[in-house]
Amino acid sequence: MQITLNGQPKDIPNNTSLAALVDQYTKEPTRVVAELDSAIVTRDAWSRTILKPGCTVELVTFVGGG
Amino acid sequence: MNTDQLEIAGQKFSSRFLLGTGKFRNKGDLKASIIACGARIVTVALRRIDLERHDENILEYIPEGVTLLTNTSGARTAVEAVRIARLAKAAGHGNWVKIEVINDSKYLLPDNEETVKATEILSAEGFIVLPYVSPDLYIARRLVKAGAAAVMPLGSFIGSNMGLRTREFIKVLIDEITLPVIVDAGIGAPSQACEAMELGAAAVLVNTAVAIADNPPMLAKAFSQAVEAGRAGFLSGLPAKRPQGEASSPLTGFLFE
Q1: Distance from C-alpha of B129 to C-alpha of A23, rounded to nearest angstrom
Q2: B185: distance to nearest CA of chain A, Å?
Q3: Residue A49 confidence (pLDDT) above 90
Q4: What is the rounded CA–CA span in Å between residue A31 and residue B165?
Q5: In 3D, which of B34, B6, B53, B62 has the Cα closest to residue B211?
């Protein structure tokens, strides 16, 4: 199924959890914040959050800035 | 023990020099600079993770105990700034936020109106809000009412190294606003940071100048020393300028009288 991750279309298996998606793209999940369809999903809810076709996920983290 | 500490939202800090973490050539320089200058508050930004490469996170290079002040860079409206602040808070590294709302890509001037709106919303949600603004008395008064923890007027354009071009307007804020005034943006040399502190600023924030210097830790330390010197100058009660000479040596007992 297709989702939008950080503005890019991505094909992922059906019933992928948010936790699995995060693990696929970062080694430091504790530094990442996830937004699913514009709502923040807290880290403790990632594993029980199953992604649906067409959903929009944003994964953000801290970078250098002034 | 330094008794003259920077106080923001009831919290005390041993340094009046805040360091931004952007633009450093490498993260080792960043860490060495934070240690060299003794900054107790550093700014960071929030961005989408890079899906192509697993980069080391900037937080690994920020010493334990340093307060993270997340900026809302990238926000063009109050709504976007609020969204970024909430995401940063969800990361679990505190609730300090520097509101930065910018629509103009040439001068990078902050949108004061949107900044006030974001400050109202985030203060009400319990954030410690430090808004970055053009120095304007009426806006600063509204920020006080909106619950800001400090006001951060720009010295000159972000990254310009032009120094304290807004000096007289910042002085108005220092004189009229009860919140700490932290001069942010455009400070490109220790002498300029010193000038801001002599004027009565509570603190100075620098990023670009340190990050792009040949020796970032050396300049970071020089900035913190300049900030301390300027603060001491301010507290000492600087004498007024005079338009003509006044002898320092006694005017009596000359050999030739």
Answers
A1: 32
A2: 9
A3: yes
A4: 38
A5: B34
